[in-house]
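Annotated sample (chain length 95).
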Amino acid sequence: MADAIGANKDEIEKAVENAMKDAEKKCMCEDENRALETEEKKLAIDERRAGLKTAPAKEANVNNTEAATKKLTEEAKVAGKPPPNPAGAGGSSSK
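Output written by the structure step:
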């Protein structure tokens, strides 16, 4: 059979050996890719969990910011009006 493809026994053995090495390398690369994908998925899950843990704090921060904004808006409205005159005080005081 080796004569039919024009190769001797040593050439055929070398070709088979190279093919086996290539197949082994391919399997190793595929295994490494699977391991990396698994690690990436674990990291993504950890990242999502960390995000969920900080979500209540973010919501509280939003609520605090809304309350502070409302307070500042009310203070700005009041600041735009002239202050009430205290009883018995007359004139302006400029120093």
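Annotation: The first helix runs from residue 9 to 79.
Annotation: The chain has a mean pLDDT of 80.
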